Amino acid sequence: MNKQIWRIIGRFVLLMALQLLVFNYVYLGGYVMPMLYVLFILMLPTGMKRISLLLIAFGTGLLVDVMGNMLGFHALACTVVAMLRILFADRILTRGEPVTIATPSVYSVTPQYFVTYMMLLLGAFYLVFYTAELFGFRGFGGVLLATVCSTLVTTLLAVIYQVIFLKRKEES
Length: 172
What we know:
Elements: H1 3-21, H2 38-42, H3 50-68, H4 73-93, H5 111-134, H6 140-165
C-alpha cells in the first residue's frame, strides 16, 4: 500500500477513536454535540470514485451508529454529506477547475475555501442528523439552533485538529 492510503487509515482510526472515546460524551448546553469524525469524509481525496466515497461514508456512519447504539442517523447523515460533497466539492474547493486534491485541508486549499466547504457540509450533516433524530420538523427552531451551534464548534475543532496533526506543506 502506498503512503497516502496509510495516512487515510491512520486519520480514520484517530478520528474514530476521538469520536467514540471523547466526543460522544460531550453535550454542551443541549445544543452542541461535536462530531469530529465527519472530517474524515471531508478530507478524503477529491479524485475518489463516487461509489467508493458513498460506501466509505455510509460505513463510517454505520460504525458510529453501531458503537453508539444509534438508529442509523449517522449513516444517513454521512451518506447525504458524501452525496453533497460529490455535487459541490469541486465548485467550492477548486472553483470549478479539474484539480485532484489528495487531502483537502486548510493547508492544501485556500483556508477560507476549505472552511466554507467544511461549514456547508457540516451544516448539512447536522441538519439531516437532528431532523432525523426528531423524525420530522417539529421544533425546527431548536434543530436550527443546534445545527448552527454544533457546526461552529465542530468547524473550530476541525481546524485545531488540522493545525495539530497535519504538516503545513503536506501535499498528500
